[in-house]
Backbone:
């Protein structure tokens, strides 16, 4: 850690300005309702109204329970997947890791409908179980249903971050442990997993906070006794400006930040950095035939479950009528024909907005991570906390905040409203997905030993040059993971999109899916557009992999080959 | 580095520029409907372009409200009458009384088709009814329901779905119709019995027809076009109006401070004209015209429902002032005692059904007394008829919740309803279980 120089101050000020302009001030203006009387005098009475309700206390504990259990089950899915594919010689490791990201790209509504068609009360699984064994598993019922869906939706957060972390462990550590006679489960538990802990914690805390603040899944499953749905139901009630909704949102923000701070504390005071980035990574081992069978079997089963919603969307997109039967009645390609007519612009818009937003996110993410871990800038942790708080801001609140805060602001040299441009949609995406990129960048930097930078500076490199030629290339894996997560989750963002779209020509694909899914006849085309969205986003992800690898190769050939082998 | 912001700004400007003569319509209606109107209107009025902006009702209101005058969309077009009341309250609507179709009746049943103050016009009619999945009913060996009261029967336990009055204006109307038709106490009892049989109270009103279409629920309480559109799209579903139903208009209005008000007036007049009304007969749209069939130029399809006949059949003399006066109370009661306590209500209802079945085989006086008490606990409303007629009580709910003191009073009441509902349902379940034990 070095002292904060002029550059750090400038960078910190820029990041802070961005967060203030596009998160704190617009959202603060909306949330002010939680703190004032109808005539504008400040009050804390609304918080009193919150705490006196038994339902709210119940909702809080339910949210907490669901978030904890979801993080636990997500870890159970993700840790073996990450460990097997990184540690062992595994056929199709890349394929597995690519497929493992897909659950995050679950288009709104389509994904929920598909889940119901597969796992619901009258879904394929239960219809078949009923036919064969006469049983019906309540997979999608109650809080357990929420945990089930959340875990298989969000485990990629852990998978991606943990994979990157495992890859950057210095192989010498493992060799040393082996030489000292440590192997098997003990080696994993005492050496490998602890060294990868920043990545795991980054992913698990994201899952926890994301689930805690998640709205879509509980609403689709009809679970209203959780905090996020309670806030949403009150904010979106027609004609009723209910301050309690904003009170709940404020409480969720405070809690999310506290959770993040706690996870940071747990990691604090330990050193996860290893120096030999350019050297050997963890050695890949061969699995015994029996072990291979078990590993492949387990991974196959997990992938089957977590990818079944996508299978459902695929089936829905080619189904004529699918109702109360394990499989659709008849198949057709006409939904794709419908969609191809008017989605060209939408695909382009999605790629443009999400690409720019994710790019902005990793720039901000790297900057914040660097300021936080490598400088003594005062109050630097606040940048992290403010950025993380956006997880708990409902999309509709952010969008209302933008419309209100930038009301009447026009682009220079015209009467075009700033809020009428797609720039607002892109910025909303960037702000809402910043926490994902940020966690990945922080984890990547935590694993990087400061001595490498010191060496570069001893050799005469300026701090900026050190960042460019040493820090960023060595963080590339984490940056890519952040970019990909931001990009693909932005592609399926809905609530802010609907409100901020002010012309059909600037609508992204998520808006198109929403539009179709509003009507009975639109389910097929909606699903078809959902499949296209998944395909486009997956392609975008793959291309960004290529770009990063190429840049990395140019900047630091030796290092990249070593750590990506 | 510096070239990019400029290029981005230029792109932004190009994308946001709108053509002259463009009418922007904010609507919650599905694409099939808006596309049909766009195509027909643009053909009839070359030179005017229609830009459809699809947003759900709440987001539509927020969007209109947050834009400055002169930059707002021209037309607001949606179902829920309360949304238009909110916009009118914010002075965001211009008077459109002059655009009304003169051949339309003033009322359907007892409900005015156009806003009497001329702030918005009825554009299509819709009634509430029952929709069911025929495969689901066959697989679960369930009879076809005809009336609301049927849904309270034990056979339908766990097979019904509805939305909540706080989420959907039409659900609110149905609930209010039931309360006015049966009286406050009896109406709530029936409502609670039906709710006890519900598998879910969905957050979006579209969640109900969607769930019935894909077979998740057997029977749904839905607005007619959802049911009819599902049927005409080939799903194994049927729809019927029960005797007690509310027929209400979906509305269209002119937003104040819009750019192209004249073109917008042309569009609004078109949607309520005979030509515009005929578009509603499209099977994918399946909505009821505001004109009686004889005024539709002989285009009415054979057997198409007649909104005015359905409204006439309805026994309820709908009092919209009464409905308005207790709007927030009914919504809050429904959410606190049904939506948020559904799990406990379901459990109580299940236990009551089970005990009833056992007692039918083996009557037992003591058990019957327990059951009477259980029923009262589970199915009596938390607010009685005298209280809801009390002006002072209603005033609490009508006041602005932005005042902390009001908010505290309201939430304290809501909390009381919620916790007593929970305690009552749990007690009812245990009483019913005792009765069941006695009947064994």
Residues:
């Amino acid at each position: 850690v070095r002292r904060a120089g002029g550059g750090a101050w400038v960078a910190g000020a820029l990041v802070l300005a961005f967060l203030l302009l596009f998160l704190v001030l617009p959202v603060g203006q909306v949330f002010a309702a939680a703190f004032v009387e109808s005539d504008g005098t400040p009050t804390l009475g609304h918080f009193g109204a919150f705490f006196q309700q038994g339902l709210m206390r119940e909702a809080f504990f339910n949210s907490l329970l669901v978030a904890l259990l979801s993080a636990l089950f997500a870890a159970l899915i993700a840790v073996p997947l990450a460990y097997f594919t990184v540690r062992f010689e595994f056929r199709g490791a890349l394929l597995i890791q690519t497929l493992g990201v897909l659950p995050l790209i679950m288009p709104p509504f389509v994904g929920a409908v598909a889940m119901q068609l597969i796992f619901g009360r009258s879904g394929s699984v239960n219809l078949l179980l009923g036919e064969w064994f006469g049983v019906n598993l309540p997979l999608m019922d109650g809080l357990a249903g929420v945990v089930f869906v959340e875990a298989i939706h969000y485990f990629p957060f852990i998978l991606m971050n943990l994979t990157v972390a495992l890859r950057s462990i210095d192989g010498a550590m493992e060799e040393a442990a082996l030489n000292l006679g440590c192997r098997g489960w003990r080696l994993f538990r005492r050496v490998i997993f602890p060294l990868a802990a920043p990545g795991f914690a980054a992913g698990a805390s994201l899952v926890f906070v994301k689930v805690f603040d998640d709205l879509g899944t509980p609403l689709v499953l009809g679970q209203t006794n959780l905090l996020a749905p309670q806030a949403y139901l009150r904010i979106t009630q027609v004609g009723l400006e209910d301050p309690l909704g904003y009170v709940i949102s404020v409480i969720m923000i405070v809690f999310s930040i506290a959770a993040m701070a706690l996870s940071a504390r747990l990691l604090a005071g330990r050193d996860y950095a290893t120096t030999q980035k350019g050297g050997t990574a963890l050695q890949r081992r061969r699995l015994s035939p029996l072990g291979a069978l078990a590993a492949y079997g387990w991974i196959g089963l997990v992938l089957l479950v977590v990818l079944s919603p996508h299978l459902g969307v695929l089936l829905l997109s080619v189904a004529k009528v699918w109702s109360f039967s394990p499989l659709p009645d008849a198949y057709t390609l006409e939904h794709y024909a419908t969609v191809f007519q008017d989605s060209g612009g939408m695909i382009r818009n999605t790629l443009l907005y999400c690409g720019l937003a994710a790019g902005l996110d990793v720039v901000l993410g790297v900057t914040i991570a660097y300021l936080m871990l490598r400088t003594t800038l005062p109050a630097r942790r606040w940048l992290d906390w403010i950025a993380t708080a956006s997880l708990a801001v409902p999309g509709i609140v952010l969008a209302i905040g933008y419309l209100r805060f930038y009301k009447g602001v026009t682009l220079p040299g015209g009467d075009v409203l700033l809020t009428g441009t797609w720039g607002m949609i892109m910025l909303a995406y960037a702000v809402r997905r910043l926490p994902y990129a940020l966690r990945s960048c922080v984890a990547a930097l935590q694993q990087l030993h400061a001595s490498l930078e010191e060496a570069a500076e001893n050799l005469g490199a300026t701090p900026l040059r050190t960042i460019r030629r040493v820090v960023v290339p060595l963080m590339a894996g984490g940056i890519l993971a952040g970019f990909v997560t931001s990009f693909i989750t932005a592609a399926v963002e809905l609530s802010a999109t609907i409100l901020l779209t002010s012309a059909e020509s600037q609508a992204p694909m998520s808006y198109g899916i929403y539009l179709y899914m509003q009507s009975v006849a639109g389910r097929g085309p909606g699903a078809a557009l959902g499949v296209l969205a998944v395909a486009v986003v997956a392609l975008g992800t793959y291309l960004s992999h290529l770009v990063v690898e190429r840049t990395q190769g140019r900047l630091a050939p030796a290092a990249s080959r070593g750590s990506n082998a | 580095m510096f070239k990019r912001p400029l290029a981005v700004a230029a792109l932004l400007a190009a994308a946001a520029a709108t053509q002259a003569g463009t009418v922007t319509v904010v609507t919650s209606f599905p694409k099939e409907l808006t596309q049909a109107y766009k195509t027909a209107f643009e053909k009839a009025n070359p030179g005017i372009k229609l830009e459809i902006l699809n947003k759900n009702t709440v987001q539509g209101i927020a969007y209109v409200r947050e834009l400055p005058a002169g930059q707002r969309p021209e037309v607001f077009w949606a179902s829920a009458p309360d949304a238009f009341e909110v916009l009118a309250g914010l002075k965001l609507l211009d008077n459109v009384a002059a655009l009304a179709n003169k051949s339309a009746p003033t009322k359907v049943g007892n409900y005015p088709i156009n806003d009497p103050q001329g702030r918005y016009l009825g554009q299509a009619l819709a009634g509430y009814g029952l929709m069911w999945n025929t495969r689901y009913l066959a697989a679960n060996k369930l009879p076809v329901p005809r009336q609301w009261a049927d849904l309270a029967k034990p056979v339908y336990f766990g097979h019904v779905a509805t939305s909540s009055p706080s989420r959907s204006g039409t659900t609110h109307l149905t609930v209010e119709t039931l309360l006015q038709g049966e009286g406050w106490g009896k109406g709530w009892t029936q409502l609670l019995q039906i709710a006890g049989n519900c598998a879910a109270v969905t957050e979006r009103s579209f969640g109900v027809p969607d769930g019935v279409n894909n077979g998740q629920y057997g029977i749904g309480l839905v607005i007619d076009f959802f049911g009819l559109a599902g049927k005409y799209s080939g799903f194994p579903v049927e729809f019927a109006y029960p005797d007690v139903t509310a027929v209400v208009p979906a509305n269209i209005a002119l937003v104040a401070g819009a750019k192209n008000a004249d073109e917008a007036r042309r569009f609004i007049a078109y949607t309520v004209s005979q030509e515009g009304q005929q578009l509603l007969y499209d099977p994918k749209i399946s909505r009821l015209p505001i004109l009686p069939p004889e005024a539709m130029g002989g285009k009415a399809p054979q057997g198409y429902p007649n909104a005015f006949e359905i409204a006439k059949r309805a026994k309820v003399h709908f009092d919209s002032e009464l409905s308005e006066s207790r709007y927030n109370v009914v919504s809050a009661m429904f959410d606190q005692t049904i939506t948020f306590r559904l799990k406990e209500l379901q459990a109580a209802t299940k236990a009551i059904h089970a005990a009833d079945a056992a007692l039918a085989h083996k009557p037992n006086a003591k058990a019957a007394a327990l059951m009477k008490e259980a029923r009262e606990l589970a199915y009596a409303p938390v607010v009685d008829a005298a209280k809801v007629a009390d002006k002072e009580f209603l005033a609490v709910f009508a006041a602005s919740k932005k005042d902390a003191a009001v908010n505290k009073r309201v939430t304290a009441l809501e909390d009381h309803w919620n916790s007593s509902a929970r305690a009552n349902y749990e007690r009812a379940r245990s009483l019913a279980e005792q009765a069941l034990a006695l009947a064994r």
About this structure: Residues 54-87 of chain A form the longest helix (34 residues). The radius of gyration of chain A is 24 Å. Chain A touches chain B through 81 residues (CB under 8 Å). Confidence is low (pLDDT under 50) at residues 556-565 of chain A.
